[in-house]
């Protein structure tokens, strides 16, 4: 287990319930534009532009798979908790679609719950993966009048927890074997293969601010905790799968104004360059994603696969953790790190960057769009007195 850097580790608490918090997605054609309005609220994007980008959802009947996946994950967590005799109900709330987080918090309070532990479906450190969830809870507590009445804590970012990484090790090995088998069947068993670890691109400014409260303690690869966490995970995976195999980190799902710099290279650009340099097969590992939601189905299974097909490359996409047994048990272990009952004192991590901390320092993963109240932050008491009283090492 690596040393814990940065902000404090929280003291175990007695919790009433678990809050599974996620992004949310439309569940029918009529939901697509209202959903996209929620996602882009405050940016002044007209419906005409939203309609242009809605075809990803409309091509799938207007249904994002993320809600069904969250229902499956919620059910799997409930089974694992029951198997361990942990009496914590699992609530589910979304940032951008039903069930909305403020309504879930109000229902939780009305049901008699007074302290929740939030588990998010985002594993890495950056504004949209961590701070925005903490802000959504902070704002919801304020808007509902539950600030000071309902406490909400958050488990640590779990990018390098074995429960998240081990399924990728299995999936990467299986996909690599599949591509090699396909090339052998085509009569080119020794043809070059490349593994592309794919994650969501974010603006460079957000990437540089990710994990910013740690910068006084250590340096991150490429100046970003978000990038460094993905690189460290990929290295850990390849050390187990095939240390000599070529791989790289690529990005997908870019949006926003063209003049704003985002993390690169784009996965399709990378595939084109690999093909030009003689690569004959690619394995795509959706390292930045917990489940097969729309960015995986469209950007990887549709666009990246089509790019590879047009270039004559063998292609296989590794699965996301989803409801993999190791992922579900790992999430419950993360929950138990924070509970008095069934406490798990060990905090495993598969890279030197972790285990990540429970409570963020003020300003970590800064919001350049305007400061908002956020939970699980040193110096903040929105909804909950800041968890943990430890000091920086």
UniProtKB/TrEMBL annotation:
<keyword id="KW-0627">Porphyrin biosynthesis</keyword>
<feature type="binding site">
    <location>
        <position position="64"/>
    </location>
    <ligand>
        <name>Fe-coproporphyrin III</name>
    </ligand>
</feature>
<dbReference type="GO" id="GO:0046872">
    <property type="term" value="F:metal ion binding"/>
</dbReference>
<dbReference type="Pfam" id="PF00762">
    <property type="entry name" value="Ferrochelatase"/>
</dbReference>
<comment type="function">
    <text>Involved in coproporphyrin-dependent heme b biosynthesis. Catalyzes the insertion of ferrous iron into coproporphyrin III to form Fe-coproporphyrin III.</text>
</comment>
<comment type="pathway">
    <text>Porphyrin-containing compound metabolism; protoheme biosynthesis.</text>
</comment>
<dbReference type="InterPro" id="IPR001015">
    <property type="entry name" value="Ferrochelatase"/>
</dbReference>
<keyword id="KW-0456">Lyase</keyword>
<feature type="binding site">
    <location>
        <position position="295"/>
    </location>
    <ligand>
        <name>Fe(2+)</name>
    </ligand>
</feature>
<dbReference type="InterPro" id="IPR033659">
    <property type="entry name" value="Ferrochelatase_N"/>
</dbReference>
<keyword id="KW-0479">Metal-binding</keyword>
<dbReference type="GO" id="GO:0005737">
    <property type="term" value="C:cytoplasm"/>
</dbReference>
<dbReference type="InterPro" id="IPR033644">
    <property type="entry name" value="Ferrochelatase_C"/>
</dbReference>
<keyword id="KW-0350">Heme biosynthesis</keyword>
<feature type="binding site">
    <location>
        <position position="200"/>
    </location>
    <ligand>
        <name>Fe(2+)</name>
    </ligand>
</feature>
<feature type="binding site">
    <location>
        <position position="133"/>
    </location>
    <ligand>
        <name>Fe-coproporphyrin III</name>
    </ligand>
</feature>
<comment type="similarity">
    <text>Belongs to the ferrochelatase family.</text>
</comment>
<dbReference type="GO" id="GO:0006783">
    <property type="term" value="P:heme biosynthetic process"/>
</dbReference>
<protein>
    <recommendedName>
        <fullName>Coproporphyrin III ferrochelatase</fullName>
        <ecNumber>4.99.1.9</ecNumber>
    </recommendedName>
</protein>
<dbReference type="GO" id="GO:0004325">
    <property type="term" value="F:ferrochelatase activity"/>
</dbReference>
<keyword id="KW-0963">Cytoplasm</keyword>
<keyword id="KW-0408">Iron</keyword>
């Amino acid at each position: 287990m690596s040393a814990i850097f940065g902000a404090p580790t929280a003291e175990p608490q007695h919790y009433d319930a678990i809050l599974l918090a996620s992004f949310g997605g439309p569940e029918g054609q009529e939901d697509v534009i209202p959903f996209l309005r929620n996602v882009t609220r405050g940016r002044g994007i007209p419906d005409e532009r939203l309609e242009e980008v809605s075809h990803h959802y409309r091509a799938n009947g207007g249904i994002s798979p993320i809600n069904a996946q969250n229902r499956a994950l919620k059910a799997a967590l409930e089974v694992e908790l029951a198997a361990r005799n942990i009496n914590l109900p699992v609530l589910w709330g979304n940032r951008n679609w039903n069930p909305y987080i403020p309504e879930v918090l109000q229902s939780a309070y009305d049901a008699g719950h007074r302290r929740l532990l939030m588990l998010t479906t985002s594993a890495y450190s950056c504004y949209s993966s961590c701070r925005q969830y903490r802000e959504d809870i902070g704002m919801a507590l304020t808007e509902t009048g539950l600030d000071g009445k309902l406490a909400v804590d958050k488990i640590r970012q779990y990018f390098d927890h074995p429960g998240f990484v081990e399924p990728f090790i299995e999936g990467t090995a299986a996909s690599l074997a599949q591509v090699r088998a396909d090339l052998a069947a085509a009569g080119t068993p020794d043809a070059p293969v490349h593994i592309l670890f794919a994650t969501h691109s974010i603006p460079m400014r957000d990437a540089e601010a990710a994990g910013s409260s740690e910068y006084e303690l250590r340096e991150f690869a490429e100046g970003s905790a978000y990038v460094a966490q993905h690189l460290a995970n990929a290295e850990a995976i390849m050390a187990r799968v095939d240390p000599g195999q070529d791989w790289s980190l690529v990005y997908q799902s870019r949006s926003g104004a063209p003049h704003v710099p985002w993390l690169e290279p784009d996965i399709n650009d990378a595939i084109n360059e690999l093909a030009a340099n003689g690569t004959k097969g690619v394995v795509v590992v959706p390292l930045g994603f917990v489940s097969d939601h729309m960015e995986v189905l469209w950007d990887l299974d549709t666009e990246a696969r089509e790019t590879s097909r047009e270039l004559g490359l063998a292609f296989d996409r590794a699965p996301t953790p989803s409801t993999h047994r190791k992922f579900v048990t790992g999430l419950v272990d993360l929950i138990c790190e924070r509970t008095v009952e069934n406490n798990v004192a060990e905090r495993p991590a598969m890279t030197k960057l972790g285990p990540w901390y429970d409570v963020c320092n003020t300003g970590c993963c800064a919001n350049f769009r305007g400061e908002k109240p956020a939970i699980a932050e040193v110096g903040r008491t929105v909804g909950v007195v800041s968890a943990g009283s430890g000091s920086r090492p």
